[in-house]
Amino acid sequence: MATTATTILGVLCQHMRVTFSNRVVRLHGVYDASGTIVGEISYFLRRTFMNQHCSLCDITHSTFTQRPSWDSCVADLGCEFHLHHRNDAPASVTATPGYVAPCVICEFEDGSLKLLLNANELASCENSPEQLMKIITEILNHNSESSSPL
């Protein structure tokens, strides 16, 4: 899996999406699902019968509940990590250049936001909260020479 993280890091740096000018204060993860009752049922049916998945949902949740390892991974990260559904994500998050759910967005202390991980990059985490945090940490630490990481 280390090669996956290295590959993703290389792709992100190649696209210049991770050039940070100031400190990351929070991360926003946006599910490719609606948080309404109808949305939750719809996602369950799409996932079960049509094999359509939200890669962020698969990382944070098992079939019906949040993965126990998710909270401990976020606690170890060192910054806030807010999770949103498509319908309840803040307008500033959905207005971030490159935003398409599911994704992870960085919010900086000056209020600016940047796309950190897209759907394909989240899928490469293979449903693992630990792998997601490893990739996020590598990306942010890679940029620590020019800015303050987490």
Class by alpha and beta content: alpha+beta
Number of distinct helices: 7
Tally of strands:
4
List the secondary-structure elements in sequence, H or E. HEHHHEHEEHH
Helicity level: 40-55%
CATH fold-level label: Glutaredoxin
List the helices and strands and how they pair.
Blueprint: H1 2-14, E1 24-30, H2 37-50, H3 55-60, H4 68-77, E2 80-84, H5 91-94, E3 103-108, E4 113-117, H6 119-123, H7 129-142
Parallel strand pairs: 1-2
Antiparallel strand pairs: 1-3, 3-4
Could you walk me through the main structural features you see in this protein, from its secondary elements to its overall organization?
- By secondary structure, the protein is an alpha+beta fold.
- The protein has one domain (2-142): 3-Layer(aba) Sandwich (Glutaredoxin), CATH 3.40.30.
- It has helices spanning 2-14, 37-50, 55-60, 68-77, 91-94, 119-123, 129-142, and strands spanning 24-30, 80-84, 103-108, 113-117.
- It is globular and about 45 Å long.
- The longest helix has 14 residues, at 37-50.
- The chain is built from 7 helices and 4 strands; from the N terminus they run H-E-H-H-H-E-H-E-E-H-H.
- The chain has a 4-stranded mixed β-sheet.
